[in-house]
Write a structure and sequence with these properties.
This protein is α/β, with parallel strands linked by helices. It has eleven helices and eleven strands. The strands form two sheets. Strands 3-2-1-4-5-6 form a six-stranded parallel sheet, sandwiched between helices. A five-stranded mixed sheet has the order 8-7-9-10-11, sandwiched between helices. The longest helix has 19 residues, at 196-214. Bound molecules: zinc ion (ZN).
């Protein structure tokens, strides 16, 4: 997905008092998943230079400003003079991030959030933090009623219970049908978009995929480029080489490395007419490929074959030590047309 230029991130109530038991040794525990996810979202906004507004709840020590907040399930919380009321360390505001203290659950109530948003010319608000059913929910409601687009990152917010979390998300989606997004959606916005050069080089990979059929093999082509120039190409040769592993991409990597003695491809981009399989994606990890661009997805291919398929390259990269940058879906329809024409008449080898 794309992050709209007019977006801001609201980091809501990620304060130390909820994370007192979290330390470097237990950081990876499942109970801290939402704050780890919140940090991933925060990193994307920081990387893109989009506004981040860090909001915390704060009450005076004499409790004069609690209003009716102690009439419900919540006890005394967020006393502003206590160190644990400060922002949590993992997501602590950095220079250039705006800070707002609020006395109520909604970040709009009695704060200057609206003035800030107007100044930033923001119309879409992403939200992370907690609690889903309290401060996230009421802030989302006020954002909606003030005509903002709302985007709650469902795996970077936490509720007072699983049921309350889910019910609040349903209520928020009732307001705006596009209001719920995930960390993966946000992270995907960092993926590079295809350039006109990418399209040109993908067209070459697709031309090779058609050529491999003429040569008696399956319709998959691959192009390796450095600085936008083609350095090596290959097509699927599983039948003519009697080598079921001679896929467009794995074959290209093997031949290129053998011929040039170059085994580190972090400065190279590989264009594949179809998403690389598990084996080829694994090969891309071993050569530290810099960037992968592909046309049709594995799910597209498997649908043609009557199977479900999966995002196999992502599965491999997400669980590996090396993560090539990925741009997907480039000339997808052209790639699909060749796959369909072939697999309507042939079985997969
Ligand atoms: Zn493969």
């Amino acid at each position: 997905m794309e992050l709209e230029k007019s977006s801001a991130l609201l980091v809501i109530d990620i304060q130390q008092e909820d994370f007192l038991d979290m330390d470097e040794r237990n950081m990876d525990a499942p109970e801290w998943a939402s704050i780890r996810n919140a940090k991933r979202v925060l990193d994307v906004f920081r990387k893109k230079g989009l506004p981040v507004i860090q909001i915390k709840e704060a009450h005076r020590p004499d409790m004069v400003d609690f209003g009716r907040e102690l009439d419900g399930a919540e006890g005394i919380h967020c006393i502003e003079t206590r160190p644990e009321s400060d922002y949590a360390k993992l997501t602590y505001p950095v220079d250039g991030e705006y800070r707002i203290s609020k006395r109520r659950y909604s970040a709009f109530f009695g704060t200057d959030l609206e003035i800030l948003l107007k100044g930033l010319r923001v119309d879409t608000l992403y939200m992370i933090g907690g609690l889903t059913n309290v401060c996230i929910h009421y802030t989302a409601v006020d954002a909606h009623q003030n005509d903002y687009h709302i985007r709650v990152v469902t795996d970077a917010v936490a509720g007072s219970s699983k049921e309350a979390h889910e019910a609040a998300l349903r209520a928020i989606r009732y307001l705006q049908r596009d209001a719920l997004v995930t960390v993966a959606d946000i992270v995907s916005s960092l993926e590079e978009r295809a350039t006109s050069r990418d399209i040109y080089l993908m067209r070459e990979a697709i031309r090779l995929s058609a050529l491999s059929v003429e040569h008696g093999n399956e319709p998959f082509g691959a192009v390796l480029a450095k600085d936008g120039e083609i350095v090596f190409t290959n097509e699927n040769q599983i039948y003519t080489k009697h080598d079921p592993t001679f896929h467009g991409e794995a074959g290209l990597i093997r031949e290129f490395c053998a011929q040039t003695a170059i085994t580190d491809l972090h400065e190279y981009t590989l264009y594949a007419s179809c998403e690389p399989c598990f084996m080829c994606s694994g090969a891309m990890v071993w050569v530290k490929l810099g960037r992968l661009v592909y046309g049709a997805s594995n799910i597209d291919l498997e649908h043609i074959l009557g199977n479900e398929g999966c995002n196999c390259s992502k599965m491999v990269f997400d669980h590996s030590f090396w993560h090539p940058q990925v741009t997907e879906g480039v000339l997808r329809e052209e790639s699909l047309a060749i796959l369909k024409a072939y697999f309507e008449k042939h079985e997969k080898g």
